[in-house]
Amino acid sequence: MLAEFKDKNDSHLGLLICGHGSRNRFAVNEFAELVNSIKARLPGIPVEHGYLEFARPILRDGLDSLRNRSVERVLAVPAMLFAAAHAKNDIPSVLNTYSAETGLQIDYGRELGVDRLMISAAGCRLREALERSSSDIPIDQTLLAVVGRGSSDPDANANVCKVTRMLTEAFGFGWGETIYSGVTFPLVEPGLRHLVRLGYRRILVFPYFLFSGVLVSRIRKHTEKVANDHPNVDFVPVGYLGNHPFVVDTFLDRIDEAFRGDASMNCSLCKYRDQVLGFEAEVGLAQTSHHHHVEGLAECCTLCEKECTGACQENENSFLETPDNHSHHKEHSHTHTLYPNAEHPLGPSSL
Predict the structure, then answer these.
(1) How far apart are CA 88 and CA 270, in angstroms?
(2) pTM greater than 0.90
(3) Alpha carbon distance 145, 223 (integer Å)
(4) Helical segments of the chain, H only
């Protein structure tokens, strides 16, 4: 697959894996492990990584490291499951600014997206969960609930729904639904409370995430809350994608696309480029990053030595805060267009 790319294995070409970043050390360590897996598959190619916020190295640090290794062309790949604001605006804004300042050639790749390899990785996580389940409930009496990150971008939210349908048909589940951890609707708790009404005896709750962190812990917390109210339903937690070999394979495909210049996104459903129904006001918005105030912030939650407990959601003082380091969960001065479904009864304001 990467034969041509590997033939160009010289010091003038380098890779940058672009992550979001987290206050959770567990999640940051998982990201670093993924980057190391990519490095192992591409020996001799300079590979660096960087984050938008809450962790170091930042994206500019990774680019500086590549330039210091005499790299003249960088293939930058977003470590994002779907293309929303981070992949479409925040990361490109940082890369374009850096390229303009230094003259470094940066070719931007596309997100992991709806991909057969990602579907296969998700299938492996579902099989693992089913094997752990002691229940003999048949598949046709099992409901699959896929939990997406949630975005103000309807294209990204819709892609999670497509993953759900692909998995539902692959396994033959009795039903499949998509819920979200934030920003859009339905959220985890109200979504699951609707789903139990369908009468299925078992519900698999699958966080479709790359890594651990506050949101994955929040999903588990709200699932447990609903499960406690419905002891007759077998709620089965499913592991997130993590550093699965198929995930690494997908990254290699995205790197190969960026090398060949084939990294085209779905612009026809991009709310920034076309008149997407309900989001017309966002066409042509300037490509800017809103993460500058927390870029490189390496302070971690004092509770996050291991996998996140979510306790910081109840205790704002658990973050190591200074006047320049406010919690990302508080109000701040970011400028966003108003999400048209911000007041949906099953959505953002209900969490």
Answers:
(1) 9
(2) no
(3) 11
(4) 3-7, 25-41, 59-68, 85, 91-102, 116-132, 154-171, 188-195, 214-229, 245-260
Q: Can you tell me the distance from the alpha carbon of 61 to that of 64, in angstroms, rounded to the nearest whole number?
A: 5
Q: What is the CA radius of gyration of the chain?
A: 20
Phi first, then psi: give them for residue 207, nearest 5 degrees: -70, 110
CATH of 116-237, one of 3.40.50.620, 3.40.50.1400, 3.40.50.1010, 3.30.70.1660: 3.40.50.1400
**Per-10-residue mean pLDDT for the chain, 351 residues long?**
56 93 92 97 96 94 97 97 86 96 97 97 98 92 97 92 98 98 95 98 98 93 98 98 98 97 69 60 63 52 44 39 35 56 78 43
**Where do we find the tokens 């960088």?**
74
- The answer to whether 187 touches 225, Cβ cutoff 8 Å, is no
* Cβ density class 199-227: b for 16+ within 10 Å, e for less: ebebbbbbbbbbbbbbbbbbbbebbeebb
Domain residue spans of the chain: 116-237
How many whole angstroms separate alpha carbon 288 and alpha carbon 312?
29
* Cβ atoms 187, 126 nearer than 8 A: no
Q: How many whole angstroms separate alpha carbon 179 and alpha carbon 298? A: 31
